[in-house]
Amino acid sequence: MSKALPKRSENYSEWYNELVKRADLAEHSAVKGCMVIKPYGYAIWEKMQRALDDMFKATGHQNAYFPLFVPKSFLEKEEEHAEGFAKECAVVTHYRLKSNPDGKGLVVDPDAKLEEELIVRPTSEAVIWNTYKGWIQSWRDLPILINQWANVVRWEMRTRLFLRTTEFLWQEGHTAHATSEEAIEETEKMLGVYATFAEDWMALPVLKGLKSANERFAGAVETYCIEAMMQDGKALQSGTSHFLGQNFAKSFDVKFVNKDNQPEYAWATSWGLSTRMMGALVMAHSDDNGLVLPPKLAPIQTVIVPIYRSEEDLAKITKRINPIVERLKSLGVSVKFDADDKYKPGYKFAEYELRGVPVRLAIGMRDLENGTVEVARRDTLSKETIPLDGIESKIVALLDEIQANIYQKALAFREANTFQIDSWDDFKVQIEKGGFIEAHWDGTSETEERIKTETKATIRLIPLETTEESGACVYSGEPSKQRVVFARSY
Amino acid sequence: MSKALPKRSENYSEWYNELVKRADLAEHSAVKGCMVIKPYGYAIWEKMQRALDDMFKATGHQNAYFPLFVPKSFLEKEEEHAEGFAKECAVVTHYRLKSNPDGKGLVVDPDAKLEEELIVRPTSEAVIWNTYKGWIQSWRDLPILINQWANVVRWEMRTRLFLRTTEFLWQEGHTAHATSEEAIEETEKMLGVYATFAEDWMALPVLKGLKSANERFAGAVETYCIEAMMQDGKALQSGTSHFLGQNFAKSFDVKFVNKDNQPEYAWATSWGLSTRMMGALVMAHSDDNGLVLPPKLAPIQTVIVPIYRSEEDLAKITKRINPIVERLKSLGVSVKFDADDKYKPGYKFAEYELRGVPVRLAIGMRDLENGTVEVARRDTLSKETIPLDGIESKIVALLDEIQANIYQKALAFREANTFQIDSWDDFKVQIEKGGFIEAHWDGTSETEERIKTETKATIRLIPLETTEESGACVYSGEPSKQRVVFARSY
């Protein structure tokens, strides 16, 4: 380990950037705005993928794969969608390089200009709905419930590892339905899947709600989202599910014959969750010592570090530990016995702390004599010495306890940093301190824009589960029926 | 089902194209040269991915993710590599569209021209070795054993679903080592993994060998490959593993301090296997009725079709079948009970035959009375009626038997279509009939080129496991030490 991490309290932003790099999650590549996801980071992403993919399949979805390129004319078809993505896309204009006639190297071959430019997909509604046109003729062909795991590109000027990168990895679900009701039900169901994933796997409490018109996905009728609070009190949008109405079906002329034998445009949803969630995972739980990973997503859930002077001592420890390692594996715990003698135990402890391994066991010769082991929890940084006998079931229980504790800690933090605010002066003061503000809003885009301009706060969501409560807009004083959630955000 | 498939004997090529589409594996997209992999096809690819990924991890590799884009200057660094890929690559030149000032739609914004063009990766050696430069300082940092699952783009003028598409999916392993020996060992180990995957999972017998210099990967010192025979006697390259020497380390200046404290360039390998294998799977085993899938890669391994007249009958069958379905699932068999009453049993039989479901059970009221069920094997198209009691273990055994039988059939076919040829006249006659030709070759690129020009046959590989045998080159008559394998290929 080199020098300590920056402290969250001193420079949250720098703490995040450094932690992502030092914990070997990701790094900037030489390609502007694109990241390299390193093996340790990718192993976490694989666990996220597996969990989500299982949930998608359990809810009746299948995976498929659609082209990386979107012809420009496809993007143009849905007007709002085009406007939303045209300004930040990678454009392929040629299909060949040739040797530089004037010297060394390669140049673009002007004879290999494409008749129509291809856009590297920023999202796949256009290319997928153009495909669905061939798949949907009758109500019998519906619903179509498809998900795609893919890379997408949105040209960003200011990038941050995981949170905002030009290329990122995600899944995008694209479904087609015979009725509006069914499509809305799907939109809400997938929001539920995201919320379950965030809370049960990432240990990340989320609010569920609707976006205001200003914050909607380009081309959506309604955008649902989950929002989580980071440790600096800012919000991070952690998954969106869109009800697209018949917008894309109309743009791509996707009609089906309904049960009454009438032609009708299909109803659509799309929903996505990306490597951005890796950023949320880091920002929500980690501390000044490094990552704190929820056990369900930790590539290594338990590490065992032997403390020894001689090879004979190591052999004795190994003999005692090996059956424990095997039993832990058979219980589904991913465990590493780190007998690498290139590094000292103290160095290893710091490394595993930095990498967020939930449970660390240390065992020396005295432990071996006493039949004990030292167990350190990453979430609380507490240690205790307990008997080796029956350690396996204790670790399994401890991992569950840590998973629950990380969630509870994040929930308590969010609750302590959520404020009901009813005056504009209080709003301006509170937003500087951070946190979520529940306030009344008059429902107009104008007010929303003014609040954003004056405070950098946006409406994160209009909560789905809320109590109606009449009040006056915190900014305009106009009447309002429910509070919405304001915050600054990533 | 619409009209029958074309017959292999009449038009093998058309049979393949139609089968891929009708069995819902893939279709052409509106984006030139790019395919849509449909859910059924993607489910097979997912099974391939899982099997390979498990083998990569078992051999010590980790997954990571590197950028989609390769700056032009990176591609230029390794000269042969650049030459090999420059002529068929998608070039990103701009990062923004804007509203057309002269009318409707979007146009490329000339103000958003990139300073340096970006190439959509045709393969990732350049971008990865540029990254490894930052990761490798000492022998302690080696080996680096990384794999990436990704999409790549090679601009193809003539495309065929799975076999040759502009965009395809693959995995690419990229490893760095301290010694040449270790890198060669890795190259051979991964060739072995591919051969095991092809034979044990795809039921596809393969030959292992080296490519001739003409057929080597651009930038490799040595290319190892596995080659399989399709039912028309042509060869299909099914995975390659490259020993890259220090070529990329030198191009990207990746040096490490070795154990003797001397700076040295790192040694590299790369190895890849793509969605092309989906094409091999179809072409190697399927018949005029449709797909024949090896059970280990079949999304549905067993389908159960009830034959009934009334709802009561169906209820009785369902009651008897449900526990069987549960037991099969618990034994790891993916099973579907198809009680959909939109289609008749005959239609379903044909559909599942088209889709290559290995085992089909049909059960009617008489079967229920007799305690029997009709079992149909997809590979042999044979049927027999057997007792329902104990059906589960019989199905498990039958799936193993089918897996083995499909492999044996393909092996017997290859053996029957492999010929040792010693005269040029015989060579020319045999190559028209198809199959693999084992012949002596004088080892020169000139002879290889002439044989290719005259017969369209290439050296598929120089076998790894072979007996030395001195002879005379089948074309030039010059001396030769071993036979090599010639064939026409995909």
UniProtKB/TrEMBL annotation, chains A, B:
InterPro entries: aa-tRNA-synt_IIb, aa-tRNA-synth_II, aa-tRNA-synth_II/BPL/LPL, Anticodon-bd, Anticodon-bd_dom_sf, Pro-tRNA-ligase_IIa_arc-type, Pro-tRNA_ligase_II_C, Pro-tRNA_synth_II. It is an enzyme of class 6 (ligase). Its EC number is 6.1.1.15. It is found in: Cytoplasm. GO terms for biological process: prolyl-tRNA aminoacylation. GO terms for molecular function: ATP binding; proline-tRNA ligase activity. It catalyses: tRNA(Pro) + L-proline + ATP = L-prolyl-tRNA(Pro) + AMP + diphosphate. Consists of three domains: the N-terminal catalytic domain, the anticodon-binding domain and the C-terminal extension. NCBIfam families: proS_fam_I. PANTHER family: BIFUNCTIONAL GLUTAMATE_PROLINE--TRNA LIGASE, PROLYL-TRNA SYNTHETASE. This is Proline--tRNA ligase. It comes from uncultured Pyrinomonadaceae bacterium.
